[in-house]
Specification:
The complex is a heterodimer of chains A (168) and B (204). Chain A is of the alpha+beta class and 168 residues long. In chain A, 24% of the residues lie in helices and 38% in strands. The N and C termini of chain A lie far apart (74 Å). The chains are: A alpha+beta (168), B mainly alpha (204). At the A-B interface, helix 1, strand 8 and strand 9 of A face helix 1, helix 2, helix 4, helix 5 and helix 7 of B.
């Protein structure tokens, strides 16, 4: 009986040790690594409008990887943001890659709203879109793009494994 | 791809990933008391959990409910500890009685807390057109949970085989009921890990 109790206590202790040793730190909880992008195209003016919603902390860390994370988030400069975004996101049509212009940023709580505009050279028929925002940081990053054109809507998903996808 | 399907994938991927460990451990704590033949009860409990988190998620995203994130992040591991503790306290009671009545209520109530955790992230991103993304995300989470539950079921079969083999090797006579050893052992492990997380995430 004593041996049995001792055995039970040893098993409990061993399980506890395994649990503690195998436990990954989870102070961050269960974050959602995603960005949302609204992309609208007006065929008449050939204007492309892009609004990107990103979590300020992750995005700032991606744009300024050498700057350590702090409790108070440091928002990168417009130039740095545009350089990062245009490196990892782009629309390429038959007439070439659409050049994007910066049209500002606003912050609402922990989310940044980034605005970009461009003019499509030629047509968007056969155009492709790539979106690798933050995929270099998180293996589970998912970027959602909602495309509006001609009264229609289409949704595209980008994970770190995805390359360019057909836009229309 | 439709908007619904996109957010379905987002919800599914949010659960079926190693990053969802707190969520998965909660599912383990809920599922560990079931035998293979109780799979309907387990599915019912998981669905009650989904209903719970869908309610808070909808309330939070529509600004009906204000949530303090540090509190929620602290409460989530506590729900895991509570589910594990309930397994230990009630391990002598009949599984079926618990499965039928108490578990779905417990899972639904704890789902309210977990939904508040999701809402912290989603609320910021769903600016307009909330209904379809929210529905797609929730259905994706439910589908992900069913997949995780199936994986847990397979893992529990392996654990049971390991317990039987260990009891045989140790020549324990009479052998303890395998289900009880499994429930106590896994609940202790899950509860301990979650308790550590609760300490790490304490808001004070």
């Amino acid at each position: 009986m004593v041996a049995r109790r001792l055995m039970r206590a040893l098993v409990v202790a061993a399980l506890s040790l395994v649990a503690v040793a195998a436990s990954p730190g989870s102070a961050e909880g269960h974050p959602l690594h995603t960005t949302m992008m609204d992309l609208s195209y007006d065929p008449a003016s050939r204007a492309l409008s892009v609004m990107i919603r990103v979590f300020a902390d992750d995005f700032s860390a991606a744009v300024m990887p050498s700057v350590p994370r702090r409790a108070e988030i440091v928002i990168p400069s417009d130039t740095a943001i545009l350089r990062y975004v245009t490196r990892r996101f782009g629309v390429t049509g038959p007439g070439g890659r659409v050049s994007m212009r910066w049209c500002g940023l606003r912050r609402e709580g922990k989310v940044l709203f980034l605005c970009l505009r461009g003019t499509v050279p030629g047509t968007l028929a056969g155009a492709s879109l790539s979106n690798g925002l933050l995929t270099e940081m998180f293996a589970d990053q998912v970027n959602v793009v909602q495309v509006s054109y001609d009264g229609r809507r289409r949704t595209l998903l980008f994970t770190p494994r995805d390359g360019a996808k057909a836009l229309l | 791809m439709s908007e619904f399907l996109a957010f379905f994938q987002l919800g599914f991927g949010h659960i079926v990933t190693a990053g969802a460990l707190d969520h998965i451990l909660f599912l383990v704590a809920l599922a560990v008391i079931y035998r293979a033949r109780d799979w309907r009860d387990a599915l019912w409990v998981i669905s009650a959990f989904t209903v719970g988190h869908s309610v808070t998620l909808a309330l939070a995203v529509t600004d009906t409910l204000a949530i303090r994130e540090p509190i929620v992040e602290f409460l989530i591991p506590l729900t895991i500890v509570a589910a594990a503790a309930e397994n230990l306290v009630a391990s002598n009671r009949g599984v079926r009685a618990r499965a039928r009545y108490l578990r779905p209520l417990l899972a639904g109530a704890f789902g309210l807390v977990h939904g508040a955790g999701f809402a912290g992230y989603l609320k910021s991103l769903f600016v307009d057109r909330i209904a379809v993304p929210l529905l797609g995300f929730n259905v994706g989470i439910e589908a992900g949970q069913v997949v995780v539950l199936a994986a847990i079921g397979v893992a529990l079969v392996v654990v049971d085989a390991g317990i039987r083999r260990a009891q045989h090797g140790l020549r324990l006579r009479p052998a303890l009921p395998v289900l009880r050893v499994r429930v106590v052992g896994l609940s202790l492990m899950v509860g301990l890990v979650a308790a550590m997380w609760a300490v790490e995430r304490r808001p004070w």
